[in-house]
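Fresh eyes needed here. I'd like your take on this protein's tokenised backbone:
***
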Amino acid sequence: MKHHLRKLLKRFPRLKRAAQRLLSARGVSTDYQELADEGRTAELERLGPAWKSEILPARQRELVERELTAYLQGAAVPVFDVLVRSLRDLDDTGEPLRVLEVGCSSGYYSEVFAIAGLVVEYAGCDYSEAFVAMARARYPGLNFAVEDATALGYPDGAYDVVISGCCLLHIPAYPLAVAETARVARRYAIFHRTPVVIGRPDMYYRKKAYGVETVEIHFNEAGFLALLAASGLELIATHTLDETLVDGRGHATRSYVCRKKVA
């Protein structure tokens, strides 16, 4: 059976590529289980360090390499396109924007920006030593640091733009992470690939990411927008990656672009 399947995939390259995409997508996030109120705090504490796993960087990078190759060849990669557009649309002084990505993983967005022709001064941080080690090895000319998103070691207004890079959903103390993103940003903050729910309170899940058990939070959108405002941020653009709504209830994944309010 497996022999015939391999022959079939070899004969039809398009089918092989489709199968690879399907398998990689299934392998990213699986086994979702909603966390009930009872026992949630203990479970969030247990799963808090999950993304520090030393096996995650290589597993994630395997998928990222395929996406980067496709992007370099001119293919649309929606999660890349949205963040590139978000930065391009910012009004600027003509000088390169100093950009910090919080939750940078292996730093691959520095490569995305280079492929897209964006002129930015990129730096990244992550709370995983393993991810930061990979980032430093792959992009030795850039600045990467091990940092906790809820207590960043940078001074106020250190970067023109601070990107929260799809990490909030794994941070139970996410209001602190939002506040820190706003504090370190001098002009703009971008909350990229944020899962939200409409008409429902925050939803908490246990799942497997690349086979590693972790937590994922889907934020009540109205509450999340109120949190941004309370953190001194003004929403100036919203980019929707996906959305499902029925009678005013549903879920979406969005990137929120904010301007820091003048004190």
Strands lie at 29-34, 97-102, 120-126, 143-146, 159-165, 185-198, 203-209, 212-220, 233-246, 249-260. The radius of gyration is 19 Å. The domain at 32-260 is CATH 3.40.50.150 (Rossmann fold).
